[in-house]
Write a structure and sequence with these properties.
The chain has about 350 residues and is mostly helical. The protein has 14 helices and four strands.
């Protein structure tokens, strides 16, 4: 009986996804047709939302392949500013003469790759999701290469967690400022916890087969993500993050929403690390036994970095797509006082939405 129920549930969900995707594409085609008939770009294109349907995994994957595109890191300040002006003008009802729909969407994704969705401020370049692949392939490749000595483990875990701290802060949810003292305390706590975790795992793995030792960096990164992300976003857990109704009207701040957002980000980050830190060690363990690698050991690090980069190009957007960027939860799951407030100001609202961060 149970397999039939599960099969029916999956089939129903699959059919709903197809129907939703069909409706979404039909609406897009209608908008494009109206724009062509009028001879100018329609003002009805909703660039507050991604171009692809976020109700399906494939739609989210297409969206994040654009957001995490490493080429966006190379864009000049002038290009970023031009994209910002195009997007903000369009939202205000001003269309640049000759602007096409594809150019508008390109500007929107350039804007999204460099500016924070809640604050609108330009993000620090290495903290942007478009910098994830080049930065992580270098750091992760070195962690997987230099894992045999304690000083090397400490140094590369410190580098990795320092980078993660920048990424976690840059991609935090909400628009409330964080003080320098809070940021410093979170950084020290998160980095110390990560390094201690790595050393503990290294000590344990020293009594196990060599191939197991190669996976110490992955285990340390996975454990460290569970420490680093909550520490760097602890203000959200204390004060909450903004929650909105379906029309983007702000209803209040919720710590419950922050917990859900942080859990989803931790799962996504660990998922990103799995291919990049689990596949290359197996390949390198086989390659290092070959005469060619024994003859040219200097190639170890470049090959490792290249393998990690290849994995990250796909793992980063696909794992970001595991959960919608605009996450949601039932009003009944919020704090009692916030539930009461929502019932008073928006009684018809049953679901709230929030930016989960990345």
């Amino acid at each position: 009986m149970l397999p039939g129920v599960i099969e029916g549930s999956i089939s129903t969900r699959w059919c709903c996804d197809i129907e939703r995707s069909y409706i979404f594409k039909k609406q897009k085609k209608t908008e494009q047709k109206k724009a062509r008939m009028s001879g100018e770009l329609s003002l009805n294109i909703n660039i507050k939302e991604p171009r692809w349907d976020q109700g399906t995994f494939m739609g989210r994957a297409q969206h994040f392949f654009m957001v995490t595109d490493p080429r966006n890191v190379l864009l000049s300040s002038e290009t970023l500013e031009e994209a910002r002006v195009i997007v903000q003008n369009y939202r205000a009802g001003i269309v640049k003469p000759g602007l096409t729909e594809d150019e508008l969407w390109r500007a929107k994704y350039v804007y999204d790759s460099a500016f924070h969705p809640d604050t609108g401020e330009k993000m620090f370049v290495i903290g942007r999701m478009s910098a994830q692949v080049p930065m992580n392939m270098s750091i992760t490749g070195c962690m997987l290469t230099f894992y045999r000595t304690t000083p090397a483990v400490v140094f590369w875990q410190w580098v990795n967690q320092s980078f993660n701290a920048v990424v976690n802060y840059t991609n935090r949810s909400g628009d409330a400022p964080i003080t320098v003292n809070q940021l410093g305390a979170a950084y020290v706590s998160a980095t110390t916890g990560a390094v201690v975790t790595a050393l503990g795992l290294k000590s344990l793995a020293s009594r196990l087969p060599p191939i197991v030792s190669r996976f110490v960096p992955f285990a340390a990164v996975a454990a460290a993500n569970c420490i680093n992300i909550p520490f760097m976003r602890q203000r959200e857990l204390k004060y909450g993050i903004p929650v909105m109704d379906e029309n983007d009207n702000r209803l209040g701040e919720s710590a419950s929403a922050a917990k859900q957002a942080i859990v989803q980000v931790v799962v996504s980050r660990i998922g990103m690390a799995v291919p990049a830190m689990a596949i290359p060690p197996v390949i390198m363990n086989a390659l290092e036994k070959r005469a060619f690698m024994k003859r040219f050991p200097i190639l170890n690090a470049p090959v490792q970095v290249g393998l990690v980069g290849l994995c990250l190009v796909f793992a980063t957007p696909l794992c970001c797509a595991l959960f919608p960027q605009k996450s949601s939860m039932s009003v009944s799951s919020l704090e009692p006082d916030l539930q009461e407030r929502i019932r008073q100001i928006s009684p018809q609202t049953t679901t709230v939405y929030f930016n989960k961060g990345l």
